Amino acid sequence: MPMWNPWRGCHKYSEGCTFCYIHKGDAKRGVNTEKIVKTEKFYAPVEKKKNGEYRMKQGTIYLCFSSDFLIPEADEWRSECWKMIKERNDLHFIFLTKRIERLASCLPDDWGDGYDNVTIGCTIENQKRADERLPIFCALPIRHRNIICQPMLSPMKIEQYLDGIEAVIAGGESDRFGRELDYAWILDLREQCVRKNVSFEFRQCATHFIKDGVRYQLQVKDLCSQAKKAGINFTAEKSGYI
After folding, report:
1. What is the per-residue pLDDT across 53-107, written as a single tens digit (0 to 9) for each?
2. What is the DSSP string of 131-171?
3. Contact by Cβ (8 Å): 142, 114
4. How many whole angstroms separate alpha carbon 170 and alpha carbon 130?
5. pTM for the whole thing?
6. Residue 121 in contact with residue 156, Cβ under 8 Å?
């Protein structure tokens, strides 16, 4: 899926960030992830060809894949991004955040009950973070909302928070020192979604994976394909953007 990273860099924020792939990748390249900077692609959605057509084609765009759209250091730049997002109403923008408590103060004046071309995903990793973030998330004016349980570090009961949610995406941690994911947690989360008619996707296994009490160590390259082979994804009658 196409991406738009108007800035890059992030700070580890909670338990799910321990083995963050962005930090690991930056470390290998000698890049300081703690430094938040605008990228040369800042204006990518509104750049045009010589014939006047937009360079970025219609479709779904992952926003701030290498950062967090709500990170405080980007406050001075975000209003320009909202203007570009509104201009490109032929694109659907998706961003994920662990900083959902900042959203209300980061919204544009004309947000209303949400832009129809924006999906916001609230990331949670355990029950503690679910109970902290999801009540805030559910109370905010958002047209399209997903819950991201990745990396899933414990079983979670989130059924009470699923009203108005379009999709739940779950997966494990990818790291040789990563924490274990028990398949039973995934199956229970799926059943919660089925009961509430919310789409569910098992996106990836974990490097350290437990199924039926047996522990496995999987290769990173196989995590997504193994999850897909499980065949447990569920599409609600009215599915949102994933």
Report:
1. 999 999 999 999 989 999 999 999 999 999 999 999 999 999 999 999 999 999 9
2. HHHHHHHHHS--SEEEEEE-S--S----GGG-TT--EEEEE
3. yes
4. 13
5. 0.94
6. no
